[in-house]
Design a protein that fits this description.
With about 300 residues, the protein is mainly beta. It folds into 3 domains: about 80-155, Copper binding periplasmic protein CusF (OB fold (Dihydrolipoamide Acetyltransferase, E2P), Beta Barrel); about 160-235, OB fold (Dihydrolipoamide Acetyltransferase, E2P); about 240-305, OB fold (Dihydrolipoamide Acetyltransferase, E2P) (Beta Barrel). Helices cover about 15% and strands about 45% of the residues. It is built from 3 helices and 18 strands. It has a 7-stranded mixed β-sheet with strand order 3-2-1-6-7-4-5, with no helix packed on it. The protein is globular. It starts with a helix and ends with a strand.
Amino acid sequence: MRFSWGAVALGCLLSAMPALCQATNEAASSAIISPKSESKADGNIEPRKPSIAEDSEDNSIVVDPATLLPDLPPLPKQNATLVGGTVDRVDLVRDRVTVRLFGGGKESFLFDTRTQFFRGTKPVTVADLHEGERVYLDTILDGDNQFARTMRLSASHASGTSQGVVIKFRSNRSTLVFRDALSPNSLEVRLSPSTRVSEAGRSVPIYALVPGSLISLSFNSVPGAGNTATEIAILAQPGTQYKFSGRVVHLDLRTGLLVLNSSTDRRTYEIYLAPGTNPDENLRLGANVTVIADFDGGRYVVRNIRFSAE
């Protein structure tokens, strides 16, 4: 029997094919996930990061922070009180402005986005509110707080008048401290070289402004510079006698006060009866009188009263 080595080789090759194919398939199957790959997949799973393109889509949505705040309640419907003065302090943290009132004293007022600000007729903002500036406020009572519904800033330098008693004059600072007739608090004004001081229509030296003098004054208010007196008139000096003639328009015997409307200058004067005085029975409302009074540095005190015919 003859052997053919080629046939034997072919037969071996055919018989080995299933095993070879099985080994190849097993190798391919096991290569899908290696042990090393399994460890990495199980231990280091990272979250998916958004792409730049996705971020740009989100950025196109803009939210106004103001829309996240609740709406303020409407202001109470009530009549407003007009208050005037100069700005003493602005607190933007507590939304509060402190005003040095014309006539004396200080008051604080709240404000918020409902408050309207004007300079003249032009709308402005709270940023235009500066210390020393003249301002008028329409105020209402909101609970226990005074609320500024409107603030009107002066369009130009302001001016005003006042009346009171001299407390002291600081010559080294050229400032006059006086107590306003409408307030127990003291006020201060600057004097300039152009300030005119007069008494009974005549110019007098500035040192005539002694403590206890009753004065009236005109002043200018400049933002940031305070009040500067333009003219000061001495109405009465302490220890001096004065004569008043006119009609009694108010009488309070309990406090000893009589108010006289002068027939000379048409002004009204408050004059007090001395303690323990028994008033004449003719002293009544509407009576025409001539009063001699002493000025004691705080008020006029009656020395003598004469009655005139109606």
